[in-house]
Amino acid sequence: MKKTLLAVAIGLSMVAGSGWAKTSTSSIEVRLQQLEERLAAAENRAAAAESQVQQLKTQQAAEINELKAAQGNTPVNGQQPAEDLKNNTATPNLVLSGYGDIKVYGDVEFNMDAESKHGLVAMTNANVNDPTNEQWDLNGRILVGFDGMRKMDNGYFAGFSAQPLADMTGSMDLDDAVFFFGQENDWQVKVGRFEAFDMFPLNQDTFVEHSGNTANDLYDDTSGYIYMMKEGRGRSDAGGNFMMSKQIDNWYFELNTLLEDGTSLYNDDGDGRLYHGREMEQQKNVAYLRPVIAWSQDELTFAAAVETNVVNNAYGYTNSQGEFVDQSDRTGYGLRMAWDGLKTDPENGVVVNLTSAYMDATDEQDFSAGINALWKRFELGYVYAHNKITDYDGVIGDDDNFVLDEGTYDIHTIFASYQIPNVMNMKNFNIYLGTYYSILDSDTVDNSSNNDDDRYGARVRFKYYF
Q: How much is the pLDDT for 119?
């Protein structure tokens, strides 16, 4: 009986152990299966994410190719009333052609001036003696620029620049209108309205006038002339430029050709375009050739240039015998040395320009020299001019002595400028303060008197870039 009970107990124990083992094994298998399902789900999610990333890359590449091919569409915010916008069926867009990059920019330049206004300063006519008038003046303009440029992988490029001006007086004008093409850091061709290499920079040119005021307005008869190598530089109102340039290491070469009505050099004060008291008659256009060679190394630059009209009898006057007298023979020479310390030290760098220019013209010789220096936004400069006229409306002078002789005159001009940057913490808004003083000392041809005259002025300039 005891043996039977023992056998039954052992059997029950074995059956219970077998059931527990089966239950435990079943639980582990379920967990393993759940783990496999989770891993499979994770792999599916990873595959889906990878697929989405690949799709995004493909879409982005397609968009980049599309932008390169056609520049895309640039949306322009509508300024219409909300009621009108509801009735619109299309969103306004600025569509670009896709041929290269387009840049739109500009600047505002308005001036408040206080200056003396003189009449004619007569260095060859002692009878002209206009009084001094002092006056306030507001002037300025807004420039809007449009530049287009297309560059190729091999370095070739082509582009244009157009800069219309809106004057404070309500008139429209134009600064540059130029087309150019070439190879980067090698050669370039420019054609249109622009200025070539500056051989007589005034640096921070806020307000620089001269007795006679002909440095910027060019030649004003019976007024002092400050020759600055600008006659063949360009940006003419009576013609256009064609320029070729070449860069070789530190050397720069350019040849500018200016074709224009040569009489536009002389100011028309209502009595015609006068030179030495005679009205100029145009026969044909002049052709100024203006070669420049410059060498630069770090902050230092040296440059030399010549400008000359190569067309004979382009303009002149008819004398009492009915003969045409050529007055268009003009050749100028210039030298420039510049130090630009701002290239390596934008905060404390010094900028210095030393310049000189000489014009050998018909019955006239003009010499100018200048120096200016800029440091910490403050500039101080000086320009000297010594000129001689040997023939003025039938009055013949002596050609022998250029330095000391009847019909010679000197002009001394001192100018200063200071920049107030980042007005109201705006990096694109600056104010400039400028002033000048200029005096002319002349000896008349008839030696009857000595004509001295001076000019002075001050300016506040508001300059805003956008």
A: 46
Residue 241 to residue 289: CA distance in whole angstroms: 10
Please give the pLDDT value at position 97. 79
In the block, tokens 């009205």 appear at 279
- Given a contact cutoff of 8 angstroms between Cβ atoms, the answer to whether 229 and 276 are in contact is no
CB 112 within 8 A of CB 460: yes
pLDDT for the residue 400: 57
Strand partners, 450: 443
Residue with tokens 């879409």: 59
Distances, alpha carbon 432 to alpha carbons 129, 206, 459, 464, in Å = 34, 7, 8, 11
CA distance to 264, 363, 381, 450, per residue, from 402 (Å): 27, 11, 26, 18
Angle subtended at Cα 267 by Cα 212 and Cα 201, rounded to the nearest 5 degrees: 60
The token duo for 371 is: 């120096």
| pTM (whole model) above 0.85 | no
3-state secondary structure of 208: coil
d(CA 188, CA 157): 9
Long-range contacts at 365-372 (CB < 8 A, ≥ 24 apart): 365/402, 366/225, 366/227, 367/227, 368/200, 368/226, 368/227, 368/228, 370/200, 370/202, 372/201, 372/202, 372/203, 372/415
d(CA 301, CA 298): 8
Q: What pLDDT is stored for residue 48 in this prediction?
A: 75
Measured between alpha carbons, how far is 58 from 414 in angstroms, rounded to an integer? 65
Instruction: Pick out the chain residues at pLDDT < 50.
Output: 2, 15, 20-21, 70-74, 76, 78, 119-131, 403-404, 445-450
**Cβ pair 249, 185 in contact under 8 A:** no
Say how many Å lie between the first and final Cα of the chain, rounded.
113
